[in-house]
Amino acid sequence: MLHCNRWSLILFLSFIFSASNAQVKSLQEFNTLLDKVLGLHVSSKGTIEYKGLSDDPDISFLVSYISQADLTNVSEFDLKAFRINAYNIMVINQVLENYPISTVQEVSGFFDRNKILIEGELTTLNNYEKSKLLNHFEDPRLHFVLVCGALGCPPIIA
User: Fold this and answer.
1) Is the CB of residue 64 less than 8 Å from the CB of residue 23?
2) What's the angle, vertex CA 124, arms to CA 37 and CA 75, rounded to 5?
3) How far apart are CA 72 and CA 26, in angstroms?
């Protein structure tokens, strides 16, 4: 039921954002807003303050941009950075959609069944991680920057 509501919300937000001057229009604007959001809601230890983040409307702008991003003309460096950030924000967003929860394991299919829209494609977090990050870049360091929403995962860095 959450996922039907989420898709309705995404479609609604996409409509609202397309008519709004506040939408994120470029990768540079995305990165600036991301820095602001993380600076406000990530502690010095790398933990996310979900309560405050759940009340921040800027997370919706980030998710909207991630959902429709066209990255055809970006460098490999910028592509890698965007995809890391996209994965991490979509993990955070899925936690927010189910907030409050104690662990992502409380959410059935969190990584492998729940579909999310990234770069105009419906995918799961696991599929995005494997196909768009690990297989595309073949960089073992990626495991150290991908946030899985658990205390045992790498911390997010603001």
Assistant:
1) yes
2) 60
3) 13
Instruction: Read off the amino acid at residue 67.
Output: S
What separation in angstroms does the CA of 59 have from each of 131, 136, 138, 158?
A: 25, 27, 29, 14
Q: What is the rounded CA–CA span in Å between residue 57 and residue 90? A: 15
> Going by C-beta distance under 8 Å and a sequence separation of 6 or more, which residues neighbour residue 112?
124, 125, 126
Q: Which two tokens stand for residue 138?
A: 């073949």
Question: Has residue 4 got a pLDDT over 90?
Answer: no
H helices of 42-75, in order, are 50-54, 58-68
Beta strands in the chain, from DSSP E residues, in sequence order:
116-118, 121-123
10 Cβ contact partners less than 8 Å away, ≥ 6 residues apart: 63, 64, 67, 117
- Phi then psi for residue 148, to 5 deg, are -110, 10
Rounded to two decimals, the pTM is: 0.83
Q: Is 109 left (phi over 0), alpha (psi -120 to 50) or beta?
A: left
More confident position, 119 or 19: 119
Per-residue model confidence as pLDDT tens digits over 9-53: 444 444 444 434 457 899 999 999 999 999 999 998 888 999 999
Name the E strands within 12-120: 116-118
